[in-house]
Specification:
Radius of gyration: 22 Å
Strand content: 15-25%
Distance between the termini: 53 Å
Order of helices and strands: HHEHHEEEHEHEHEEEEEEEEEE
Helix content: 10-25%
Number of domains: 2
Largest sheet: 8 strands, mixed
Number of helices: 7
Structural class: alpha/beta
CATH architecture of the largest domain: 3-Layer(aba) Sandwich
Strand order of the largest sheet: 4-3-2-1-5-6-10-7
Oligomer: single chain
Number of strands: 16
């Protein structure tokens, strides 16, 4: 266990696990949840203030959201000289309760406290701060995403966080999705994000291109705050009856293959395997999620006993699938 914890902490310290979210992407997502932030304590527990756009966004929009308090902690701040700490290795806690009149607050406007530990979100010191929070909003380390989500769930916290869509099938994440305790937000444009990542080679190639930016595909917002998007009904136009050949059965799952979300048939009442990107269209009143094909060593799915957990059709492996059922098929 000691070695495992050491490895996890090493991953957290790894600079290549740090991606700074653009404020335009934060604004595009969070505008949908304004009323749910009123009189709430917001905690950004993986955010270096004055580098983090999350801190900037909430500080500038403190009154707009009607926040009660904004708290940020970071893992050994890289900009602590702004707060006259004089040690680039110190970790800090910031508390802000408004008053800067929609501008980025100065050090005089906020409470700055050095942390006793390193600022790791798993430390007892940061857990005590987490207990005070109502909503957690941040871009956590992708390498620790499963552990991060498990912590939020264990303390029953509301959250809006960024992660890779492949995390959907993680063994600590999928049960929350299946039980409607976690879902997707509105998302990034074209299902990709442009992060500021100065330690990476400049690889972004879109109109948002600028120095020190990296483009990452398959990035989504995860949340347990309700939104209108998850209640929009998907219009189904495809038929299973008379078109059965287009929907083959799996070798090892009691379900039919639906290779594209838009091909979900309107007249099938059994289990269907769909791409994980289906979750962007998921409406819990329209569909039931009943399993997934594989979850990093622990099966969670609609599985045939004794068979391999990898999805296959005629012996050919298919990429990971969610298994769903239409709640209201037209039969």
């Amino acid at each position: 266990m000691a070695n495992e914890n050491s490895g996890l902490h090493s991953a957290k310290r790894n600079k290549k696990d740090e991606f700074y979210t653009q404020i335009v992407d934060i604004e595009r997502e969070l505008r949908h949840y304004r009323k749910q932030f009123e009189n709430k304590v917001v905690y950004c527990n993986c955010d270096d203030p004055y580098i983090s756009a999350f801190f900037e966004y909430f500080a500038k929009n403190f009154e707009f959201f009607g926040l009660k308090k904004l708290i940020t902690t970071c893992y050994k701040s890289q900009e602590v000289d702004l707060f006259s700490q004089g040690d680039s290795e110190v970790s800090i806690k910031l508390e802000y309760t408004g008053g800067a009149e929609n501008s980025l607050p100065s050090p005089d406007d906020i409470g700055v406290t050095p942390l006793e530990g390193d600022g790791d979100f798993r430390s007892q010191e940061c857990i005590e701060i987490l207990k005070e929070a109502d909503i957690v909003v941040t871009n956590p380390p992708f390498s620790l995403f499963s552990e991060y989500v498990s912590q939020l769930a264990s303390f029953d916290k509301k959250f809006i966080i960024i992660g890779n869509q492949n995390s959907i099938t993680y063994k600590d994440v999928f049960p929350l999705i299946k039980d409607n305790k976690m879902w997707l937000g509105y998302g990034f444009k074209r299902n990709m994000a442009h992060f500021i990542a100065p330690h990476y080679e400049d690889t972004a190639s879109d109109t948002d291109h600028k120095e020190g930016m990296i483009r990452v595909s398959g990035v989504v917002w995860y949340t347990n705050l309700d939104n209108k998007k998850r209640h929009e009904e998907m219009i189904l136009v495809q038929h299973y009856r008379g078109n059965e050949a287009a929907y083959p059965s799996y070798d090892n799952y009691n379900a039919i293959e639906v290779s594209r979300t838009q091909n979900i048939p309107l007249d099938y009442d059994g289990a269907m395997g769909v791409p994980i990107t289906f979750l962007t269209k998921y409406n819990p009143e329209q569909f039931e999620i009943i399993g997934c094909s594989y979850s990093y060593g622990e099966p969670v799915g609609y599985h045939k006993e004794g068979a391999s957990f990898d999805v296959s059709i005629n012996g050919k492996q298919v990429y990971k699938r969610l298994f769903i059922r239409n709640r209201n098929p037209i039969i």
